[in-house]
């Protein structure tokens, strides 16, 4: 059976139980098939070649003036070549170097929290703090650039925030979907100006680094120690790795291609990770027993050490903390859905045919709240990810980083950063709940309406908060452990 090109099925109301059923793929637009497909078809659709499953322009096209023809937005052979060239940049030997940066950026954020408490500013929006921290971290990992953005304003960082906001606003304004109208609007002019700032910064770094590479040779791809002393040679960052990458024919990426990938790494890497970290801290603030178990795990790992810094090998020694992070990613996935378009007719089990050109929305939220796979799906229960409880679960039941050939290339980077930030935060602070239930706000990433607030208190005084403090809406408080 082929779905006719104008076939439309009325979608269930958002509160209808079927809306929360597993992994729906929703085909939408009035001129496209609009139908709901469930989990048993996800595996079949996820393993399709990247040349068949491509990014649609309905939303991703809004990002193209900013991110160019990058891995996120490219298709076909161009995408395959870029994926091959970029994959070595996310090898664990490279990621090891970034853990030191994660530690350092987290230390800066925690120092700021302590200072703000001492100054009497006890209520802070953690999304804003953690977003700055992840941007700071990414700027160091991508460009070896110390922006000091956690402590002072930065034109580049402000431009990234501006672009992210404008993309969300454009998506919600139907008239602005037309380029002719959008680029003549005040919002379109602001978008162009912010793009100019970001592109100018990235272009300058790429050109300077290429010249440096020609004169000084390749930097080290990973740190090394000899006799307990770390080598002093500069270690390769993301730009370096892109500059030296070569395909099978010995061709590398052009400066324009490198700029597009660096801009994409900054866009895709900071907000999603910040959302993930913020919701983990929120969920653990609601569950003191899990929080205490994580803290004990971290303290046991770091006992008798001279510093609190975590290294790459430590991350595998945080199994329960990792389970808590994964359960938070299930319950509050940073990205609620992804879309795909098919370049040919696809026959699925049951003899149905998905017509060429159909746009498919994969509901990550629906997948992660399927009661048939996740009993009591709205309950935060990290034990779902205990190896014994996970062994028979479909690999497509948990897809915070999407699935298939176009899954997130930076997922190991993100998981490493989340483990470092969560572990150090729990070692240094206690999180306690306060106020009414926080309301989800799905945008480019999942946020909370009005911010996800933590009320910070002086060390050792969290238990003495007044009833007035405890009733603050949508907040949590944390005190030094």
UniProtKB/TrEMBL annotation:
SUPFAM superfamilies: Cytochrome P450 (SSF48264)
Catalytic EC class: oxidoreductase
Binding sites annotated in the UniProt record for heme: 408
Cofactor: heme
Keywords assigned: Endoplasmic reticulum, Heme, Iron, Membrane, Metal-binding, Monooxygenase, Oxidoreductase
Record-level GO cellular component terms: endoplasmic reticulum membrane
Pfam families reported for this sequence: p450
GO-annotated molecular function: aromatase activity; heme binding; iron ion binding
Membrane is among the record's keywords: yes
Catalytic activity: androst-4-ene-3,17-dione + 3 reduced [NADPH--hemoprotein reductase] + 3 O2 = estrone + formate + 3 oxidized [NADPH--hemoprotein reductase] + 4 H2O + 4 H(+); testosterone + 3 reduced [NADPH--hemoprotein reductase] + 3 O2 = 17beta-estradiol + formate + 3 oxidized [NADPH--hemoprotein reductase] + 4 H2O + 4 H(+)
Highest taxon listed in the record's lineage: Eukaryota
Record EC number: 1.14.14.14
Subcellular location field: Endoplasmic reticulum membrane
Family from the record: Belongs to the cytochrome P450 family.
Functional description taken from the UniProt entry: Catalyzes the formation of aromatic C18 estrogens from C19 androgens.
Protein name from the UniProt record: aromatase
